[in-house]
Design brief:
- The chain is an alpha/beta fold and 317 residues long.
- Helix content is 29%, strand content 26%.
- It has ten helices and 19 strands.
- The protein is globular and about 55 Å long.
């Protein structure tokens, strides 16, 4: 079944710009999203999704009221939502294996949804810019093509990617939007008209370095949250020692930016600090299975009464 906009089938391949020009409501929604001010989102009720992670929940979740992700330069943040019951998946895609990731996103919603319930599947794509290597353009095309190949009708509601999310300054290109949130409400109206907002985050945990290390060492897309138990499940992960980690830790900021980023000029200010802390983590834990996950058990977290993550099991328990 096709990817649809306003009930009409999308004609692919098209660039993101051509697609929104053919469907004016898409262009208007992208314009409105770009024009929003950035919301600073605190940790209360937040489920933060890192690169190559996905999380799915619904407005009935008693712990999570916000799904979000940021730090997307060439990456795209994807939101797939079932309008009938509000089941929502948010993921941070980097183009590593889009063909495998889109079915994973679809299945996460299907396993959560009541198929008898009225409603439709809606997808929102945000991120990327007009980068020199055209990585954003490639990822946009991959995502649109893979959603178009799925068996279910999927309605494209938001498309603010690549050239639609681009600004130019001193002949250099940058993303306009780096991060988004989707807010949940228990009222029936808001379930059906859930809005996406521009956002940035101070808290990207729990276990931010551990989760970032898994992505940096090439881990695939994974689901991190169990909506039935309302628990965040981290690991157990395994990876090989990061090659030349001491060499990279000796390099200056410019070398790290130029060699470990897909878009050196467009990264947020904390990028190098984030990479350095992740490399230090990988140096400390070259093989995490026994040190971080004794007994090969996951780290489990649950929101406490203040809406903050609290560990509910230790690795050895």
């Amino acid at each position: 079944m096709p990817l649809l906009v306003e009930g009409r089938r999308v004609r692919l391949p098209q660039s993101a710009g051509d697609l929104v020009r053919a469907h004016p409501p898409l262009e208007e929604r992208a314009r409105l999203l770009r024009g929003q001010s950035v919301q600073q989102v605190g940790p209360q009720g937040l489920l933060y999704v890192q690169q190559r992670e996905l999380a799915v929940t619904s407005p009935k979740d008693g712990s999570i009221s916000i799904l979000g992700s940021d730090d997307a330069t060439t990456c795209h943040i994807v939101v797939l939502r079932h309008t009938g019951n509000g089941a929502t998946c948010l993921t941070h895609c980097d183009g590593t294996d889009t063909k495998a990731e889109v079915p994973l996103i679809m299945n996460s919603i299907k396993s959560f949804s009541d198929h008898a319930q009225c409603g439709r599947l809606e997808v929102h794509l945000v991120g990327g810019f007009s980068d020199d290597r055209q990585l954003s353009q490639k990822l946009t095309h991959q995502l649109l093509s893979e959603f178009d190949r799925q068996e279910d009708d999927i309605h494209l509601v938001t498309l603010c990617v690549t050239e639609l999310n681009d600004r130019e300054e001193n002949e250099n290109h940058f993303p306009i939007i780096y991060g988004i949130v989707i807010l949940f409400s228990l009222t029936a109206v808001n379930i059906k008209t859930a809005e996406i907002y521009r956002a940035s985050f101070q808290d990207r945990g729990p276990e931010e370095e551990l989760r970032a290390a898994r992505a940096l060492t090439g881990g695939p897309m994974i689901s991190i949250y169990d909506a039935k138990t309302e628990q965040l499940c981290i690991g157990p992960y395994s990876w090989m020692p990061f090659p030349h980690v001491d060499f990279w830790l000796q390099q200056d900021d410019k070398q790290i930016l130029e060699n470990l980023s897909t878009s050196p000029l467009a990264e947020p200010p904390h990028f190098v600090e984030h990479i350095r802390s992740t490399l230090m983590f990988l140096k400390k834990y070259p093989s995490p299975t026994n040190t971080l996950f004794p007994g090969n058990k996951a780290l489990l977290y649950k929101k406490n009464e203040d809406g903050l993550w609290e560990k509910i099991s230790s690795p050895g328990s």
